[in-house]
Amino acid sequence: MDKKRVYTFGNGKAEGKADMRNLLGGKGANLAEMNLIGVPVPPGFTITTEVCQEYYDLGRDRVVELLKPEVGEAIKNIESLVNAKFGDVENPLLVSVRSGARASMPGMMDTILNLGLNDEVVEGLIRKTGNERFVWDSYRRFVQMYGDVVLGMKPVNKEDIDPFEEIIEKVKAENGVKMDNELTVENLKDLVRRFKAAVKAQTGLDFPSCAYEQLWGAVMAVFNSWMNERAILYRKMEGIPAEWGTAVNVQAMVFGNMGDTSATGVCFSRDAGNGENLFNGEYLINAQGEDVVAGVRTPQEITVIGSRRWAERAGISEEERKANYPSMEEAMPEIYAELNRLQQKLEDHYRDMQDMEFTVQEGKLWFLQTRNGKRTGRAMVKIAMDLLNEGVITEQEALLRVEPNKLDELLHPVFDKKAQSMARVLTKGLPASPGAATGRITFFAEDAAKMHEAGNPVILVRLETSPEDLAGMAVSEGILTARGGMTSHAAVVARGMGKCCVSGAGALIVDYKARTVEVDGTVLKEGDWLSLNGSTGEVYEGKVETKAADMDDDFARLMELADKYSRLKVRTNADTPQDAAVARKFGAVGIGLCRTEHMFFEGEKIKAMREMILSEDAEGRVKALSKILPYQKEDFKGIFKAMDGFPVTVRLLDPPLHEFVPHDLAGQQAMADQMGVSIQKIQQRVEALCEANPMLGHRGCRLGNTYPEITEMQTRAILTACLELKHEGVVCLPEIMVPLTGILYEFQEQETVIRNTAEKVFTEMNDRIDFKVGTMIEIPRAALTANRIASRAEFFSFGTNDLTQMTFGYSRDDIASFLPIYLDKKILKVDPFQVLDQNGVGQLVRMATEKGRDVRPDLKCGICGEHGGEPSSVKFCHRVGLNYVSCSPYRVPIARLAAAQAVLEESK
Ligand code: PEP
Ligand code: MG
Predict the structure, then answer these.
(1) In whole angstroms, how far apart are CA 627 and each of 215, 650, 651, 669, 875?
(2) Among 9, 86, 176, 321, fewest CB within 10 Å belongs to which?
């Protein structure tokens, strides 16, 4: 045998184990592990992820040939463990076939249940079980699933109806029944007959009756589903490589639909929404697993406490709850006790919150799956900190358990309390994924994308969602569904995305044709505003203002812990005292970039600025600048005050001058009047300032070098502000930064202006203050000659926005025209303006840091491009030895955590 392609498990034995997830997929590895630790799992086998690749390389026939001997043996193993025979009429073994990739991809790929049934086996199984309804119900489900998935009958266009669903609706209508479970045995037989006729009509083939033929079809269909559109989209979103492939798990069937002592469900060892240490989940009596996830029937709670909370939200009395919606703890107490014991065992074993699927077949409990549960950002923090407190994991593990980007959710908006109190609650659903969202109603995923592109926030309203809706969900602010429970597709996927979601709002009447949603007589149309509270399940009419979230104690503790381990400091990019204050609250220890441009744009300042630019000579410019000086000084005072005791890097004016001058007639006339010159003169000047390529034009220190008056004025404003604050007892640590340096002399000229101006200010004010003069490194030439520049510059701040632009030669402003195609074709893996290109741009950062420190060992180096708040880029900055990263205020906690993880990952 060249290599092992099949790994068996069952009855406490397994060829695989948990750490083999790359080969066996997450599900396969955990099925093996559960066997090894004594959790009851139906016996089966896993075909490795490597075979998926072989399938794409060698094709179906060759792969079947390669697999045959091992699969045959593995089937025999199951047969001996369950004492039944695959394809046998009298004592048949039925199996399930499921996908299972290395990383969990919920609902993305296909599953086939009840495989092995045919017309003869059905009769045999009826004789064996004595349960005619159950057998025919299983058969009709199998034919439908097999037809949809393996024979390709599931409509590609989602407007089209599944042919099998159409038949079910017809049979129900003909027989005057509403629910599937009201169908009689005769109805079910009729369904199978019609299903098979539909298969023949649509594919020209007879439905396969040979068990092995069915099995190979299903295995290959799972491999095919690795490349279906929704799986590809999901992988793109989650950054999962296509080469990984999926494993296939084949297991003996256990049935949750064998009557009232059978059930199926999904459960979590802790709350995936808020992290509370509370076992929870949902189950359905007499159902198969797909019914829970698909949201076809609304399931009931597993625990009494969960059930009571649910009833309270739904306004159901305790008596009614007990009578009609009992929890599993009440309805099946012994099985519940076993389930509870095993879920704890699994959590203890994996030392993390588990997401589990189970089936009860005639009173016997089986686990079908366990995995580390997906969770919201809030739950991620709480569970990590709780497990730390419980002594289950270490501080280092706790820090590594939180994905930095997930912190975004904790920092994201909640409803403004006042606005919320005035808003009208339309209805209530389940609090499926927390947060607040407000947006315009849309009913279809495609429309959501269009609306989003047009700049509108979107709320996607659906009866229920399916994996086809993924792209629409990704661009929506929030998701609202009329059906489905807390483990429905909408709920699970929204939580994974960290999006607000309310599911199962049963009072909604969604009319896709009319594009309306009605609640208690209120009709809302597509485009109307709607607001959702994913933490309470409330749905509000209209637009409800949101506000930033409060951080809780767990979050604060996590941040403290991050600082304990990190070396890299985190500063912020802030241009206003308000932003500086927010960032400080988030733990920023200084400002790494204060862009001064915006300070010139408001009110009187823009007029004086325009006057300066339009002036003919230095004298006119100095006069205009003297009008700006007091404003600048006050701006700086506000910022330095907010950052009392922390360093503040103020960057001198950067953007091209044409951005400041008026391009409209009225604006030009106003300037002409103000300056007492003709409008033609103004227009000539405006035209003269126009550049073919402003990004590479008269900006950055080229401005300060051609108009040193600007540098003088800004230096004066900064240092005067600091000296005045010094008298008020504020500790200012100013760092003056020259933008867009490419040549040492460009910097040197500016430095001279800065230092001379400083001396003048100090003499005039009869006081001094320490300050540093440094530069942005954002032009490749500056990085290449960093040793020369560092001979004068006291600090470097990498402007990786411009550095990326100039290293790739991609215009920052125009990349959108080709980026999507580049990403699609995998020419680029990610947008280099979001994630630092470590191989190219990163090399320049590393080299410049080393070269700079060769001549100035204490050279302070930081980064202030957008990458400063992106986790993988932050980790790179740590490895290169930068002193700090600087990012927008709301990304400060993300960068702090990433900085700590960088240390921990290094020591691994
Ligand atoms: C940069 O180029 O990375 C930078 C921070 O400056 P700006 O984005 O203002 O050009
Ligand atoms: Mg720049």
Answers:
(1) 82, 20, 20, 21, 44
(2) 176
